[in-house]
Amino acid sequence: MHSTWASQAWAVFRKDVVVELRTKVNLNAMLFFAGTVLLIFSFALGPDPARLRTAAAGLLWLAFIFAGLLAFGRSYQLETENNAFEGLLLIAENRSAIYAGKLCGAAAVMLFIEAVILPLMAILFNIDLWRSIPALLLIGVLGTLGFSAIGALYGALTMALRAREVLLPLLMLPVTVPVILGAVKATSYVLTGQRQDVGLWIEVLIAFDIVFITAGLLLYDSAVST
Amino acid sequence: MEWIQRQGRLLGLTAFGSMAIGAYLGLVWSPPDVDQGDAMRILYMHVPTIWTAYLAYFLVLVGSVLYLWKRDLKWDRLAGSAAELGVLLTALTLAVGSVWAKPVWGVWWTWDPRLTTTAILFVIYAGYLMLRTLAADPRSRAKQSAIVGIIGFIDIPIVHMSVLWWRSLHQAPTILQPNLGNAPLDPRMEVALFVNLFAFTVLFVFLLGQRLKLAQLEQRRDEVLWEEARVV
After folding, report:
1. Closest CA of chain A from B27, distance in Å
2. How many domains would you assign to chain B?
């Protein structure tokens, strides 16, 4: 059967999401991990509510990003078992479809974690979320896509390496600095009601997403070819 | 590339000579700064190290793109050798800049946009070098590091712009910046700076040539070892 690029990307995406949903263990672990990160950072900063509220955006994104690093490590670690990735490469005519599927699959996992952690943070730090939800949703999607654009590419590069657990964060975190800055700044402006300053950081996120998703689509074939 | 490997003696002597002249011009001949005094002389090393570091990262990009295109390992050797020098020069820039910042700004470190960008650059390429030490075989190492080398270079302007906005929005400058652009530089200072830029560039090309030679020998050694392992 001749399948299109989009249907191949969709198949990879669906496979990754279904695996996560069926094996819930890992999704649960990531959720608890992100929640624990949030708690631990609050302890590190002390119980002063005003200080916690100013730091909230940064803490929130650190929790998301740490969970995201786990999501990408896992997304490719599963593929190394039983040489599953070889099979995937044989099926796809255009490997960039695998990239797109992997990107969206891990991004979906991250977004799910964000959707649970955000209200938790609002309760812990006593932040009123209701009016900010549409803006936060946009920032969450853009930030997660940017992070995933790098993660889906670097995860494929490092999956066969020794010490990949250390190397993946080491490679990903510096490159994604613009995403971290953009997402934290935009979130913080939304939470403190300085709406006029959000636009610039949304633009930074959009620019990063466009540049690195394009780069990922173009480079993925070289990244996975042997 | 072959040329700079062969001309090691010429390049080495030129680098040595021009470094000596540059040091004399920078330390003795050129006048001290009106405000900063002798501390300003660090400029003659600080600017050349970061310039050659950027040159090195550009060569990492060139080597990476050409490797993915031609699949010739010599381009991977170029990228890897340039990256090592780039990380070294970035570390030097940060260290020397820190020594300069202490007497002039009163602190070792500040979250100035350029400092922050340079620090991020250092970590990006340090990760690149780490990746190179972990790869299983030369081909996959070349492929993996080429992609990281390309992504890293594309990232530099985006990191720089975002860090610039991060520090400048709603925040007046809290530290005194050396206003090199405003007051015209003393012509003797300009001469000293350009001689040092030239000297460091030649030194960089010389070191790159030596590192490339070494990389070639390493590769030959690996091939021999691999061949022997196969025979046994």
Report:
1. 37
2. 1
